[in-house]
Records
---
Amino acid sequence: MTNPMMTLNTLLEKSSDADILREMIGFASQRLMEMEVGARTGAEYGHKDPDRLAQRNGYRARDWDTRAGTVELQIPKLRKGSYFPGFLEPRRMAEKALTAVIQEAYIQGISTRSVDDLVKAMGMDGI
């Protein structure tokens, strides 16, 4: 396990504020996922417990687009059952809404350049 103070000092030495913010978001989200998985499995990472409910089975990578930029997450996997972070759920609904807006704009005849500007203004990459 890494030393949290050492990690924080490393973050503060970085040059760009956006980099610091993105790294802090990534660090906090990883800790949150580890706590959620620890509660779901009945034991923290690396601890042995006879009352354990499930076991970990590695990680899967996923990019999370935030206002500070793209954060690379390592989502824990479980041997039995599944785990998906609760803080990523609203994103799925936002993507569906954005897709519906883009489809409606296309049907209404709005130029793709205007829709692309709208998407970029919302903090996402172009279409």
---
Amino acid sequence: MFSWRKILTGVSQRPTRKLHISSILQEAVIIDGKQIANEIQKELKATVDTLVQNGNRKPKLVAVLVGNNPASKLYVQRKMKVASLIGIDSSTIVLEEKITQEKLIKEIDHLNKNETIDGIIVQLPLSEHINEHEICQAIAPDKDVDGFHSENIGRLTLNNHTIIPATALGVRELIIKSKIDTFGKNAVIVGRSKHVGLPIALLLHSSGQGNTGALDMTTTICHRHTPKSELTKFTKLADLVVVSTGIPGLITKDMIKPGACVIDVGISKINVGNKYKLVGDVDFENVKQVAGYITPVPGGVGPMTVTMLMKNTISVAMKNYHCKT
């Protein structure tokens, strides 16, 4: 019998660091998302190897890529590379940018009906003539390993068993692996997107006695239009701040409670000295002087998102194996 509890707790433990005021004198602990992701990937590979040794087929993930957006192509390639490393059978379907929404939905429906496929992802963003919400709804909920379908979000809202959006799941894992105390603590989510901000808020806020592994925090949701003065009032009280707005440097040192954990989901490309640099929503160099824990960009949430996508795919495959036995 396979236990996801082992996957949640199996990585090497890091020393607990109590967040006393004395931590002001120390720089924040850098939460290494890449290292944690690599450790979880090794465990996922061991799970897949065991599944195959027991006579099961490999889990299968299919990505749908519409058009030739360089960033989207790169993201899909990274996902497929990690899938291959773990042992997941993966493939990418590339469709022309001018494909109609109707034809795209028919392609997804064909994948839905293929019993050998466990997970389906459609790389976002899509062309303006395609309604992203309707495309996400077209994927069968039990194959929606991105966790974007309304049924999966609805189950998450009710704290029921569901496919949790990969970024939200990755944020939760970083918090757990870093041994951040969450029970009854204050959290602020800056960002309200249905795919990132809202699912993260639900995972932080809901009861840990439910089925989603939530973290029992007192949670406030802010967003890019929250006035800076009001936003600061909330973040200064927060033991945990998660930011996902796409606004470089939005969160500054003066906005953070000493010793707080800061998780930066945002990523933007900016021009620095005629060179492009990837940065997050947090003024990393200054905020780390007051925070207790902080994630870097890149190398924080990003690797975890891809890894949790693979975890979701394996979880779906295991349910499919069970249904057929």
---
Amino acid sequence: MASYTHGHHESVLRSHNVRDIANSAAYLRPHLTDTTRLLDIGAGPGTITLDFAGVVAHVTATEIDDDVLSLSRDLAAARGVTNLDFSVEDVHALTFSDESFDVVHAHQVLQHVADPVQALREMRRVTAPGGIVAARDADYAGFLWFPVLPELDRWLDLYRRAARANGGEPDAGRRLLSWARAAGFEDVTATASTWCYATPAERAWWGGMWADRILESALTRQLVDSGMATPADLQDISDAWKRWADDGDGWFVVPHGEILCRV
């Protein structure tokens, strides 16, 4: 298992908690029905997972340990959603029987695992014939923003170095199709979509989140403890995020690769 670069600090969950089918899994939505049995790999705080539960027959949510899984379990309990179950899993070696699910989904997961091809093989194994394996991942090298701020260039370089040091691949989006083919899939539809932050409210949220995240998350500790950056370096980056958020010309785009793999 690779180490999860982001961790689960409040500043990280602030980003994850806004995710739903519309902004994170629209490419998969046409393939979901009220009879679908869905496995959600890496459910995180559970917002996409619970959205799935509103449109399919049953969802099984997984995470790498019970503490993280409790985030989605607690959200389901708070909302009174009952057509879910939960399982601590390693995506490289899932405990489920062959052909257990109609759809297996992973959002922003394959970029963090040690062996994404093996993960896709396992996702395929537990998918019934005619079912779908779906994955969506950001591509950090493709991030674009304006105005150009050297501190944000530094931020991106540090993040990509940290993610690779943890055994992940931050530029996963562009690699999903190749990983799927290496995993043995022959019927693969590869697409792309973006998140874009350009309004004052979007900039305040995205820039404010990263201004906090670079100072307070698991990434912060890794960068300082490894000697990749000093606290002063990270403070400069945080301040730059705030300047970007306050700039009326500010614009930021996050590209994603997507795959729908028919079993």
